[in-house]
Write a structure and sequence with these properties.
By secondary structure, this protein is α+β, with helices and mostly antiparallel strands. Helices cover 39% and strands 17% of the residues. It has 3 domains: 98 residues; 228 residues, PPM-type phosphatase domain (Phosphatase 2c, domain 1), CATH 3.60.40; 122 residues, no CATH class. It is built from 13 helices and 15 strands.
Length: 464
């Protein structure tokens, strides 16, 4: 700008001058450049102003002094303005960092996998202020599956943070101890009523969506409390899961709350559920048009929740040109393709115990007493219900395998074994009962009762 002013000043007649416009250069540089850059701009302006007066040839000494003093004063003012603006920028940056730290502490990032679900979350803060919003999301495993919540508390700042913190605490406790979703909603409503009674000022309320997902991940049980409906993205189509009946937000139950309805929807394995706060759908472009996520989510997209949320935020940024007026919290979940059900988990647990037993095979002449509980995955062959060891071949022993002619044990009424040691050969004889004696001392603690030791072909199962 300075050099353009010099060229213009040279081209115009001598009776005209652009010096009055030139003196504004240091002030214009203050919000753009650093302190050194602002001072350098003032120095260059001083030199150019003196040079312009010299080339004109009609500038008196007094006018030289006035030009010099004017540019010097404006340069000092520009430097002070630059320092003040830099200080404000640092304070705003520190405030934003503190706000982000508090936000992360109150609203931690959920794990990537919870129960049968793949989980992703994003938080898009408003660009116009550093105040902490009241948007929240949470997901927790329950004894019956997974419970999640997304909500938007009225207001901003520390007051909203306190409400968010208390809501999350009640939600976590309810997820662990209250299986019924409507009972959990009642607890959250009671909390908001207490908060409204304790704190003076505007009435506190929060819109929310609570969802229960069973262990197999096949269904969604949804309670919507005045919140934007979640979107189920499946095979190139985004469907809003609207509630069957409207419900009041949390904290407004005294206006006439009734039992909230619970709506059930199927969750296919290749579908993704997208939850969000009103900051997403209330975002506007320069023409005032609200953002609608349905057309974008109806395009062919990957099913990974994180990829969908990143693409959605990128499209939101294009729509608003980076100027978001309100915070937006987003969470997406997808059903894992390999989510086991309860029967599979129980079968895997039992087979794991049987494999530990299989590594310790008993002597074929030692047979169990009683009716053993067999591994459901590897049924054992039939066997006698008693043990009898005698000279010759023991009952049930394989053909061609005679037993030790010296009896090792007698049968007790309780089915136990009584060993008799005879000289130095007793050490070898005791090897015959190692399955019962050794495994009895090393019983896996995860088994509540007798287990069947599964053997290879030709051997009988032994209970220990």
């Amino acid at each position: 700008m300075l050099f353009v002013a010099v060229i213009v000043d040279v081209l115009i007649p001598p009776e005209f001058s652009v010096f009055p416009l030139l003196v504004a250069a240091p002030v214009l540089a203050a919000p753009v450049y650093s302190l050194a850059g602002t001072i350098a701009t003032g120095v260059v302006t001083e030199l150019l102003g003196m040079a312009m007066g010299y080339t004109k040839g009609n500038v008196a000494l007094t006018e030289y002094f006035v030009r010099f003093a004017t540019i010097a004063v404006l340069t000092v003012l520009a430097a002070l303005l630059n320092r003040a603006m830099a200080r404000d920028r640092r304070q705003l940056k520190d405030t934003r960092e503190v706000a982000e730290a508090v936000q992360r502490a109150v609203l931690p990032i959920p794990p990537a996998r919870v129960g049968p679900l793949d989980v992703a979350s994003r938080y898009r803060a408003a660009a116009r202020e550093a105040a902490i919003g009241g948007d929240l999301y949470a997901i927790r495993p329950t004894p019956d599956g997974v419970r999640m919540m997304i909500a938007d508390v009225r207001g901003k700042g520390l007051g909203a943070v306190r409400i968010v913190n208390r809501l999350l605490g009640v939600f976590y406790e309810a997820a662990a101890h209250i299986p019924d979703l409507t009972d959990a909603v009642d607890l959250l409503e009671e909390l908001m009523q207490r908060i409204d009674a304790e704190e003076a000022g505007p009435e506190s309320f929060a819109t929310a969506v609570l969802i229960d997902v069973p262990n197999d991940g096949s269904a969604l049980y949804i309670v919507n409390l005045g919140h934007p409906a979640p979107l189920l993205v499946h095979r190139g189509r985004a469907s809003p899961l609207e509630p069957s009946a409207p419900s009041l937000p949390l904290g407004l139950g005294d206006l006439g709350r009734r039992r909230v309805p619970v709506d059930r929807y199927a969750l296919p394995p290749d579908a993704t559920l997208v939850l969000f706060t009103d900051g997403l759908v209330e975002a506007r472009d320069r023409h005032g048009t609200f953002y609608d996520p349905v057309p974008f989510l109806s395009r062919p997209l990957p099913t990974a929740p994180g990829v969908i949320l990143d693409a959605l935020i990128a499209d939101l940024t294009r729509h608003t040109e980076g100027h978001l007026e309100d915070d937006a919290a987003l969470m997406a979940v997808a059903r894992l393709p390999d989510a086991p059900n309860d029967a599979h988990k129980a079968r895997s647990h039992t087979c794991g115990v049987a494999q530990q037993c299989q590594a310790r095979q008993p002597h074929p002449d030692v047979r169990p007493a009683g009716s053993p509980r067999r591994c459901p995955c590897h049924p054992a062959p039939e066997h006698p219900a008693h043990v009898q060891l005698a000279p010759g071949r023991a009952e049930g022993a394989p053909e061609g395998r005679p037993a030790d002619p010296s009896p090792l044990a007698d049968r007790h009424d309780d089915g136990g074994l009584r060993r008799s040691e005879r000289g130095k050969g007793a050490r070898r004889d005791r090897q015959a009962v190692r399955c019962r004696g050794r495994l009895k001392r090393k019983r896996p603690r995860i088994s509540p009762g007798p287990l069947t030791c599964v053997h290879s072909a030709g051997f009988e199962p032994a209970t220990f």
